[in-house]
Specification:
Layout lengths: L12 H13 L6 H13 L4 E5 L2 H11 L7 E5 L5 H8 L3 E5 L10 H6 L5 E4 L11 H11 L2 E5 L7 E2 L2 E2 L6 E5 L12 E5 L4 H9 L3 E3 L5 E3 L10 H31 L33 H10 L15 H4 L9 H9 L11 H15 L3
Parallel strand pairs: 2-3, 2-4, 4-5, 5-8
Antiparallel strand pairs: 1-9, 6-7, 8-9, 10-11
Amino acid sequence: MTYLPFTRPTIDEDAIASVADTLRSGWIASVPRVVEFEAALSEYLGGRSVRVLTSATAALEVALQVCGIGPGDEVITPAMSFAATPNMIVKVGATPVFVDVDARTRNIDLDRMEAAIGPRTKAIMPVHFAGLAVDLDRLYAIADRHGLRVIEDAAHAIGTEWRGERVGTRGDLVVFSFHPNKNMTSIEGGAISIGRDGDAKRIDHLRFHGIVKDADGNVDVIAAGGKFNLPDANARLGIAQLARLPGFNERRRVLVRRYLERLRADPQPDLPPDSAGHSWHIFAPLIPFDRCRLSRRDFVAAMHTRGIGVGIHYPALHTLTLYRERGYAESDFPNAARIGRETVTLPLFPLMQDGDVDRVCDAVKDVLAGR
Ligand SMILES: *Cc1c(COP(=O)(O)O)cnc(C)c1O
């Protein structure tokens, strides 16, 4: 029986050969392929300005800096995400203000979000959780009403659509991740899709030492920028992956539809809602472990014994030590807390076979039945 991980990148021989060509070219820092990758992403995102960086985490940090966010400022963000989202708010010296998520969509609750806006709020940082788009029409209506910047954490959402439009084709600053677990990869890497004139230049400075060059080629430094430039070898892989992304995402949708039809157990897992435009970064049902004779730890171990990998995405942010120490209690955000306790990420990646889905469904049923 082959081990089925919860995710696995799809990297074909042509992509490997193209990366090898880049290595042989002598140009391996950030020149021709980064320019080409940014142009390809721009085309994919309806002609927007796009900049690539070494990770989405770096891109979130730079996006916050572009918005001028720092000490004394608050940024509103959901209590259910990966830690990189609030961590970067803390890292620039600002305060993350958590808001609970909707129990069904797992995206930020927009009514609670608007209620959390105060005099120190500078920006909103929503997350398109698992690849399901936040309601961008309502979100931007609220942001505009209150004069707030928006940094969309779209790490899960390359290829996601909201009402037929790809996430990142409009809006303020939209951040993507190309980590190996994401829907496409450049090994490590991230991108920002940029909505406002002037921000692209700011990002150029902040991602590379604050360096500017004048018309005569003289170098000056205008900001204490970091070093977040994506290497060309990574960009070359990203170009190959982007060309295959529509196929990857279509295969994810087919596999999820099979899960939604076949995953039945007792107690019945709470299945995530399907929706047009969902890019299905992860498939993560909730299992009511407190009603089971089984803990999540035992569930994960029993699945592992059957050769099936299970991920946990994610513990609720406000239950992590860093944020508990900032005064949050588990009961503050009940929906995020429940998702954090009950979520299990089942295998989902384009190379999976239909039979793999059936194998996972059978295993979940057996394990929850105590067999
Ligand atoms: C993966 C992820 C990130 C960070 O992406 P990296 O490219 O690994 O830095 C940020 N936010 C969310 C929601 C993520 O899942």
